[in-house]
Amino acid sequence: MVLYGRPGRFALTERRAPALERGAAHLAIGPSALAWDGTALTVRIDERGAPLPRPIRGTVRLFPEGITAGPFTLDAAGRHRWWPIAPSSRVEVDLAEPGLSWRGTGYFDTNAGDEPLEDAFTDWNWCRADLADGAAILYDVRRRDGSVQDLALRFARDGGRRPVEPPRAAALPPTRFWRMPRPTRSDDGQARVLQTFEDTPFYARSLLSARLAGEAVRPVHESLSLTRLTNPLVRFMLPFRMPRVLG
């Protein structure tokens, strides 16, 4: 859970297996849970931030406008799968701690794997943008064996896949502090960073200005380096942002 701006909050707590409960339409991890009722996904959040232990409590409701056909395989062996379940969704956020609420558009996906990410990939970058009739998603992975997979996807609001011309590579500056690379693509080979949300040793999240599927868009962009993640110094720093709860 991340809130940017003021008041900002960050929570990504690791928990042991006994803290997990799941069924066909619900998932609970510790005090937080999500449930699907056939129309909306309701996420109930009850977390404590890190490194500052400030509370994050409230509800997020996501109403998909359509569901996509199924997952994509990211590696040649089929051990890693990504499913952009609801590329276009309506979202309602109501938080008690901190006291915030808003309505907007959103996106919901899942990732699943049978081995650690760093065993299969060196890095990847991803971005998603609202379109007039749906959403555009780019997902580019670099595998340990040197091969690549560059996905350019366009989905209508009902989740149906639509054709799209593969965009061109677009250069972006690295992040200011940790110098994380931020490769991306756009129709005309041009893109700009409007805001940097996360600048960490192995991960960056940014808001861009670009063109995708023929439209001027503002994609949310993510860049991940699995090579940096395996650095012993980075491993040492992780618990300060990702605490582990033993109970």
Automatic annotation (TrEMBL):
Gene symbol of the encoding locus: crtC
Descriptive protein name: Acyclic carotenoid 1,2-hydratase
* Top-level taxon: Bacteria
